[in-house]
Structures are given as structure tokens and as C-alpha cells.
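ingest -> validate -> predict -> emit
validate: passed (alphabet ok, no gaps, 459 aa)
predict: started
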Amino acid sequence: RRCLKTARWNCAAALPAWPGLHPRMLAGHSGVTSVRTVKSSSSPKQQQGDRLKDWYPYYAGFTQQFVQSALDTHFVGASSVLDPWNGSGTTTAVCALRSVRCTGLDVNPAATIIARARLTPRNISDSLLPLSLEIMRAAEEPPPRRAAEPLSEWLRTPAIRQLRGIQHGIHRVLVGDMVLESDLAADPSASASQLPVLATFFYASLFATARDVLRPFRGSNPTWCKSPPTHRHRINPSAATIRDLFVGRVKFLAERLCLTSELAASWADVATRSVLDLDSKGTYDACLSSPPYATRVDYVRSTAAELAVLGLDSDQVYSLRSATTGTPTVRGSVRHLRQLRSRSANQLLSEVAAHPSHGSVNYYAPWLRKYVTDLEDALLTIHQAVRTGGRIGIVVQNSYYKHIEIDLQRIVCESLTDLGRRPADRADYPVPHSMTNINSAARRNLEGRQHQESLLVFT
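emit:
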């Protein structure tokens, strides 16, 4: 045992620029065997019970502690950071708090509003509750009529009128004629970036209120909002209930603001854009982000309440779902069958297509190919955006299709290595709860599976 330990240290000393790497990250370097295993309390993502305590109950949000630790450990000295899958905006908020310029992108306009709301300065928190009461008074004026009402899928007319009244009050008090409610539905990507930061705070409060109201339609899957079986099963919470929920959410979010001043907020730039549309060559010192995992989680559908508040119809939501990395919607997507950069990904696609189960060749293999293709295109864009000598940090998690492991860590490593990036570090985190456990039929295949979340750092 002592000889083996000495041999490992000798092998590691021969490769000083590759500390803490997992053996599967280095094909041909089997002597490197050390992996830093991090306790679950330091996990990058919010745990199941902690999401309700976080800034916003976003399914895939980073913890602030993780971003702070990553900046201190892996991105020391970085003056500009990119997060191309910004979500609820933890990376942009923490960077702004530290006076580090950060750009956060997301294709979902609801996520853009939530992330920008997080930039509301804490020094005005005492004025937020009085403003909410002023918004309530302005909400008594009838809101403008809509040609289509997405909220009618779950709610009856009086409840919808209350939510729309609060939205109209936000525009009357804080927006004016700058962005009308109708503009949000007509051009949500642009309008989400044009709203004043203070207005986005109250929009985030309204989003959270809508989620609270629609809680009866959420099942064991935290990412899905079900539709009622018939129109008669729609709910109609009282006006007082909706108003109390809104004021409660204003208080809740105000207590969790972290930025000290408006000057701190100026360090962050949040926009509704796809990472594939990013046209920046060598602009950033670092990238810290987490792409959607290969689990077919519908991140857009998980924000159904928020998008309904914005007024997006079913066609707009479907287009948004189709544009999201990892989307479970593959119908109508036409992608050329190119050879992928990751050899492991090509082998994985062959194994999935050859699996005898129903749907493997017709759905799961095409979905997985689209996912890996989109991911590799995104990694190429990130590689080009981060300067030479800068660092890229990607948080990923492995998953399974039947008994076939989708080793996302290895796929990302091979793709970035092929582009010329070099693995610098890896931290592994245990996964106490997996989305696979939700499906009772899938639990039969859980024996022998090991889920692991990892931060992969590249230079």
C-alpha cells in the first residue's frame, strides 16, 4: 500500500499543471488518480429543501456560497466573468457584489427579469413595502384587455383580474409608457431587458405570487405545472389572498437582497440571449456556468407561471422550449448529423440508438444528439469568448438512460480539450436527490447507479 501511494505521488508530480483530476478526464494518464470530493453542504446547486429559502425558487440555481468559493479558488484576479446559462442570476449578483464585471445570458425572458431583480440595491429595501402598497392602490384601475389570456389555463376570471391589476399597477407606478404590458408579450426578449431594475423586483414578486397561487397544480416533479382536467377545475383564490401573497413575497425578496448600492448593480449586465448568439472574441477572463443537464428537464415549462404572467401564448412558449439547450422537444428540429468532437458522445449515441427499448432510436437517440450538438456549439462559443489564459468553469452532472451512463463530465472534458483547453481542476459533489427518483417506473433501474455533480475547470 505504501509503494502504491508513493507511485501515485510520483505520477502526480510529473504533471503539476493537472491537479485534482479524475482518472476519466485524462485518457492515457492513468497515474493521476486524486479526486477532491466535496461535502454535500458545499454543493453548487440548491438542495430540494433549500430552494424555498433562496432568493427565488428556481430549480437549477447556484448557491451564493458556491459562487463565492469558486471565485476565491479558481478565478482569482478575474475582472470579467461570463455566465451563458444565467438562470436566477446568482453568478451575476455575487460578481457585482465583488465589483467584478459579469455578463449573464439566458434565453428565457422570465429568468432575465428574475436575475435583474436580484440587482436591486439593498439600501432601498425600506421603501419597497410602501411602494407595493402604492402599486396595490394603482391596481384598482382595470387593466387593459388582452386578446389571449394564458393564465386562464389554471385560474378563473376574478383571480386573473387581480394578478393583472397588480401587473398594471407596477407599470403605472414604476414604468410609465416605457414598456407596456402588451410589449412584454409581443417582444419578451427585448422588453425584459428594458424594464427598470426596480420594476423587475416587483415583477419577480408577482412571479412568485403566481407560483404560490398555482401550487395546487404542482406535483412531485418540481419542474412541472400541470393543467386542470377541465375548465371547471380551475381555481379562484380571493383578492385578499392574492394581495397578501404579493406583499409577503415583496418582504421575502427584500430581505434577501445582497447588493449594497446602485453602483454595485452597474457591474452586471443581464440580457435575454442565447449563448450561441454571443459574438465576443477573447472578451472575458473567466466563465462560470452550468448548462442544462442531460435529464430532459423542461426548464422553460418549469417557469410556466412566470411566462403566463408575461403573456406568452402557447406558440411562443413552444418556440422558447425548442430554443433551449436540453429541451425535450425534438420534433421539427433539423440538425446535420456531423461527427461530434467528443469520442465518448459518439459512442454513447450509438449505444442509445442500439438499445432495444421502445423509443430509443426514434426519440431518445435524436434528443441526445441534439443535446450534445447544442452543448458542443455552446462550448465552442464560450471557448472563443474567454481569452487565452482565462479559465472556464462548467458544472455538470452525469445521468443515465436505462443502464447506459451519460458521462457528461467526460463529454465536456473531451469537447473543450479538442478545442485546445486544458483541464486544470475538478471538484466532485455527491447528489443526494436525483430527478430519476421521481419516476416510480425508473426506480427499478436505480441499482448500481451513482450520480455525481462536478465542477470542471479548464485553462
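Residues 4-34 have pLDDT under 50 and may be disordered.
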